[in-house]
Write a structure and sequence with these properties.
six-stranded mixed sheet; 21% strand; binds iron/sulfur cluster; disordered C terminus; five-stranded mixed β-barrel
Length: 589
Amino acid sequence: MWSADHLRFSFRLGASPKYPYRVTLFVFVTIFDGYVDEPALLGVPPYISPYPRLIAGVLEELEIPYEYITVDMWREGARPRGDVLVVTGGAIVPGRYLRGMPASVREIADVASAFKGVKIIGGPLVRFGITGRKDVSSLLRIFDHVVSRDLEAFLYELLGNGTPEDRWRTGEEWSRWLTLGAPMVRGHPDHGGMLIAEIETSRGCPRYISGGCSFCTEPLYGKPVFRPPEDIIGEIKALWENGVRHFRIGGQSCIFSYMAHGVGERERVRPNPRALRRLFQGIWKVAEPDVLHVDNANPAVMAEHEREAMEILDILVKYTTPGNVLALGMESADPVVIEANNLNAQPEEVMRAIEMVNEVGRERGENGMPRLLPGLNFLLGLRGERRETYTINMEFLRDVMRRGLLLRRINVRKVVPVRGEFRIKSTHLARKFRDEVRREIERKMLRDVVPWGTVLRNVWSEVHVGGYTYCRQVGTYPLTVVLPYRVPIGIPMDVKVVAHGDRSVTAVRYPVDPNTASLSELKAVPGVGEKRAARIIRMRPFHSLSEISSATGLSEEELSAFMSLSSSSSAPPPSPSSRGGRVRSRTSS
Ligand code: SF4
């Protein structure tokens, strides 16, 4: 509960001399996070997007008490309270989520309808709608204020000056509010666990001068605005001091275009390695992240400015943590589709970008994943799509395989019709393409990215599905790891890969302690099976692997690949004199 002391806040009713009075109000605000998923920004757990942090920054500056609830907390019974409800959200890119589904239109309507105070909504939901549902006007009618520009700037004007002005934030406000709002992360359910902060470096795409790719919303923001390295470093410092240990520098159209030269003059801007070095070096001066990853990259910029791009790749390999992925926006390899949608790169440029990342990033890092690999996005339903498009895309991927190059992830999805109408040419062929990518490319690729027996460190258990536990490392596009048994949710552990699916791997906890492991854990160890697992449980405790070898018929080598006796569980059997809790000391006899 909040106390009356915390509820007092005053503002001027209007900035003009006409309203010279300050009015004291008692205001408490609830920030409701419906989660965002945009082309250049993610805020679905374990991610927290900058939007609620910006709103919290305004409230911190105005000294207005608030609380933060997510749609998942609301699903579990939490309810907004106070006088003002601020809703942010909008998943405009269709995603597959392991947990933490973004709020639906219906859920947001339910939240708002039940709230008695002033209701304000903003974010991508207002600007672009929700995936597959562009018209959200009936939802918006429930709200007192619908903000189409920056919600936090509107809130600042409304609560700070009493003038509800829908405007964009300034660059200075952007960083100021993000830094001030950092303490709110402590209210996120994943705080202290998997929480990863999505960090924005810029807004907009340098390709805005040509209108950008036909389907993309980023060019609609106009000329890109970049945040200086010092501002981003300051924000990360504040988040670090508030307990965030994982960061993704993901809020940009292309990491290689950060503070690049020629923005506003040409689409393929010249990268600025100095700015990126300053940024990444600076981050490590104020924090020691467990995870530091990035997101999007424009392969055309990389291929056209190879020298600068290689320098940036070296910076990324040196200053980011393993398991990092550069998501390359290819969208299509078909020249007809590329032309019809003003896409950014030609297939040979994408191939060169894939080679460049492979040249520097394939080495395996401390967490078991390659340090830096490319990911690839394909879109279905773009203009000009034809039967041959699927074949051409498939041939491109086969060529990547033939060249022995690694891709961490291939994302095939439908275009979201935010900037116009898009239609898949043939649902049958699209499905066939998706299946072929999974069967023929992804499964094989996964075997090279994480071969059998790879030990993956710091894998967090996230959800139970039947008798299985689904887990992931924290990071950008983390691999789904399935344990064929249940373990408690929300714990980090090391696992060893024992099988491959199309887009996930099966693994077992590593190492397994035969003296304490459950039956299901033991029987999942390759070579053990049900009968041997039962025998191990019947005959334990063991004091050496050779004892288990005699009991099961498995060689010590086979056993040691997965098992280890912890020092406490493998301590020598207690001597008769120490049994029954009585210990005789030498001197007492
Ligand atoms: S390159 Fe295309 S897809 Fe990428 S941000 Fe720019 S307009 Fe969007």
